[in-house]
Structure formats: C-alpha cells, structure tokens
User: What shape does this take?
Amino acid sequence: MTSTPPEPVTDPPATGKPATGAPLIDMPVPPPGTMGPPTEYARLRRDCPLAEVRLPIGATAWYATRYGDVRALVADPRLVRPTINDWPPRPDRAAGDEPGLTTMMELDGPRHAALRRALAEPFSVRSVRGRLPRIRQSADRLLAEFVGGGRPGDLVAGFLEPFPLLVMCELVGIPYAERDDFLPMADAALGAMVTLEEGREVTARLRGYISALLDRKRREPGDDILSGLVGECGRGSLDAESVVSFGLSMLVAGYRTSTMFLADSVHTLLARPDRYARLRDRRELLPGAVEELLRYVPVMNGVVVLQAVEDLELHGRTIHAGDAVLPVLAAANRDERVFADADRLDLCRADNPHLTFGRGTHNCIGAHLARAQMTVCLEALLDRFPDLHLADGHRPTWDDQAPSKSPLTLPVCW
Ligand code: HEM
Assistant: This one.
C-alpha cells in the first residue's frame, strides 16, 4: 500500500492578516502534555509565513514555517550560525570575549570543510551499516537490563536515553563509563547558554574534559573517530581547535536529539496500539516508517538559529543584517503544499522529502547514524516485546516549558 502522492505546490489564498505589518507574536509552543507541533504553525504557514516572534529569552527572531522557505533559508549562505557571543544580544558581553561554546555548527569556511572531509567516511552509510551488528548488541544488552527492573518500566530512563548515548560514545570514542562526569557539564552548558558568566565557567570545564580526552587518544589511539581526528592533526590536515569543537558538538548535540526522536516515536506508536502491531506484523514497512516518524515527530522546532549577514527580502518583509532567522524544520515537515494529509502519520508514505536533518553545508552529519539508531531501536523492541504497551494508570510526563518536547518518562508494560 502506498500513500497518495503529494499535491502540487500551490499556496492557498491567505485568509487572515497579511504578512506585511503583522504583529510580533510570542513563540508558539506545543499544547501541554503533547509533543506538538504548536497548533499555531498551520495559521502561520497560511497567513504569515515569515513571522516576527518574541522568544522566551527576550530576543526577537523571524520564524519561517513554509517548506519552500525553510528549505531555501537553511542552506542560504547569507545566513550564518551565530556563536553564543553573536546572538542573542547581551548587555553583559564585552568586546573581545572568547566565544562561549564553539561547536561544529558555528565553524565555517576551510576549517569547517576540512572537518567535514575528515568525518565523511566514519559517518557514511557504508560505515554505519558495518556497525549495525554492534549497535544491535548494545540495544539488546540495555533491554536485557531494562527487563530486569520489572514492570512497569520507564523506557526513557531504561533504554531510549542510554541507547543513543552508548552508540555515539562507542563510535566517537568518548568513554560511556565517564557519563556521570561529562553529562552534567553538557547539560549545564546547554542550559547556561543564557547567562554568559555561567556559560564561560562550564564551557571551560567541558573544554578541559575534551582536551584531556584528546591527550589520552594521542597516547593510546583506539578504533574510534576522535583517535582518527587526532591522527589527522598530527599530519597537519586538521587543527586541534576544530577537533575540540567536534568533541563539544558530540557532547551537546550528538545524542540528545536522537533520544527525543526515539521517545516521541515510540510514544507515537504506542499511543495507537494498531500502529505498533502493524510494524510488528509487517517488518518490511520499517524503513519507510522510520522516515515518516522523522517527518512527523516535531522535535526540530526552532532549534536551528541563523543570523543574517546582509539584508534580505522575503514575503514583502525585510530581514536586516544581524537579525536572527529560525527556519522551523518541524513546521516545514507538516506543510500540506508538499505532504498530503500532512498531520497524519502514514507509515506507508511513499514520497517523503522531509527536512529533519537540515540541508546545505551544515546538514546533519549524523543522519545515517540517527536513522540506524531508530531502525535498530524499533527492531529490538518489536523482537523482544511484541505486545509492548503504555502502562495502565501511569501517564508519560512532559516538560511543558520546552519548545521541543519528548516524554520525560514513558511507563510501559510487555
Ligand atoms: C534524530 C536525530 C537527529 C536529528 C533530527 C538531527 C538534526 C540535525 C540538524 C537539523 C542539523 C543541522 C543544523 C544546522 O543547519 O545548523 C544537525 C547538525 C549536526 N548533527 Fe544532527 N541530528 C540528529 C542526530 C545526530 C547524531 C546521532 C549525531 C552524531 C553522533 C549528529 C551530529 C550532528 C553534527 C556534528 C551536526 C553539525 C554539522 C555541521 O555543522 O557541519 N546528529 N543535526
């Protein structure tokens, strides 16, 4: 069975306030107790495809919600990924401050290109395929421990959180056993992005951890990505600072997004038991189902922040140099212009050009790994727990303040 092909790309007539002169709105958030997306997105796509939005941190940003605009903006060279020093604007910032947290996303030009070249092979489809048996072993081991904890069990704490972390750590060469040391720092660094002082302090500690780890790799190289990058530095094709940036990217972005996608995906499947049963009984649907879950789950909710380096016009409005622009991947993925019946999860959707991994020079280098994690996660669950279901009388919990949401706990029985 296949889904109906997408409608031709046409803009329905605007029915509300025109984009030009539209008022500043508060950042849309998902309805409480749900993963979203915010209900406001449909209206924005229809009536105000470039909206000026007030973010919880006080700054304003342009929100782009239509597929065509998001696809173009995310790869537009007139928009760069700002460091924490460049955006949001802060009164406590001093000229000449060191960038707080420079990850791979904020690198550009030849240094970024050199790092992408060095990482292309270890993150390639071929390389990820070669690791599949090992990834499956990790899943089975964690699930065996999870079962030991008894019923109902929290699938987030027991499996959906540790699994992508373990897979990333093994591939990259970050000792999983040291997670209690680096995770609090990584979480604090993400949280501390709002105040510069805390940001400086925790970033210094995180950098210290990565630098010490790279020293260990220099002395005792392993079969992992960081050891490979340290070797490239020795040969002069990479600079040491770029490798530190990559290490930081892994700690702050290399697994949390996957955890959130896994938790939202499993919750979405279990919330309607016929969905889980369908995948269990028709395993051939799994590759398409993974792509559909990547489209449907709205985690990429204003998480890509860009900054204009020159003025640009869109929908009759001017984005000025220095303005922040948020191409909302989660809103683009629900655009009816491209996806027929876009708010419906269609496990058989045939044509699925979702934008979940971004596009252009900074697109997600971990996309193949993330797909492999989702596939193995679902396979391992379907094999071990053919009758997995949400535990009666134990509701999943949510952080309703966060713009990107996944269940914090997912009580299940089997
Ligand atoms: C479902 C899970 C994931 C999603 C939805 C996701 C999504 C994204 C997106 C949208 C970007 C582009 C950001 C931008 O344009 O500024 C990105 C960048 C990136 N992602 Fe992922 N990601 C996921 C998992 C992973 C994993 C597992 C890894 C590695 C272990 C990873 C590593 C990276 C890195 C290093 C970048 C920066 C690339 C660059 O700047 O050149 N991601 N990711």
